[in-house]
Amino acid sequence: MLITNLRALVALVPLVASLPSMPSFINKLKSLSSRDDQCPYPTHYKITSLQVWTPKNGNTHPIVVDFQYADELTKIATSCHYNGTQPNAGPEGFTPRYACEDPTVQFMWITETSSLSMIELACPHTPDSGMEALDQITPRLSCVDTSNTTPFGEGSQCFSLDFAILGNFTALDPIEPPGGN
Ligand SMILES: *[C@@H]1O[C@H](CO)[C@@H](O)[C@H](O)[C@H]1NC(C)=O
Ligand SMILES: *[C@@H]1O[C@H](CO)[C@@H](O)[C@H](O)[C@H]1NC(C)=O
Q1: Domain for residue 180, yes or no?
Q2: In this structure, which residue's CA is closest to atom 13 in ligand 1?
Q3: In a domain, 181, yes or no
Q4: If you measure from the C-alpha of residue 43 to the centroid of ligand 2, how many angstroms do you get, rounded to a whole number?
Q5: Would you write out the chain's pLDDT as a tens digit for each of its 181 residues?
Q6: What pTM does this model have?
Q7: 121 and 169 housed in the same domain
Q8: Ligand 2: residues within 6 Å at CB?
């Protein structure tokens, strides 16, 4: 037991020491991650092909959100889509969140501030599960108006000005049980 603990400590030293300039939050995430490297906690992510359509002038069509999500460290690559038919994957009483095709990844689009919140469950299906990494970004968008002859009707179609958005998780929270408690 003592030997195991010592080996875990020694294994951690070079990891932390090699990242002197990284934000301390990332160090904390790494030190919390499973010691055997089988299950790194999410730290960075990449969003590509982000498009958001929002209704205008009394159009009641729900917003439509599309993007690709990738996390190299946790080896996740998935598509994320919302068009009003997806169920709330989050706990009741909070801003609704939607699962990507890989439900390890979830997102919220906040229309008022045009911001995207990303959530990646940390180490699902392992003894280290129960936590989720979170971040919020406000992508730089370019928008064009859509008319009532287009599929969703009157609104605004926005595209990310950045080919790829490189995000860094900024919080790690315990997962709220769905439906609250
Ligand atoms: C909404 O998205 C789902 C896929 O999640 C798709 O099957 C469905 O056709 C879409 N509905 C509309 C009205 O675009
Ligand atoms: C995330 O961190 C990297 C450097 O580690 C930086 O280049 C990038 O701009 C950051 N992303 C955001 C959205 O701040």
Answers
A1: no
A2: 83
A3: no
A4: 11
A5: 333 333 333 334 333 333 344 455 555 565 555 455 678 899 999 999 999 999 999 999 999 999 999 999 999 999 999 999 999 999 888 899 999 999 999 999 999 999 999 999 999 888 878 899 999 999 999 999 999 999 999 999 999 999 999 999 999 999 877 654 4
A6: 0.80
A7: yes
A8: 137, 166-168
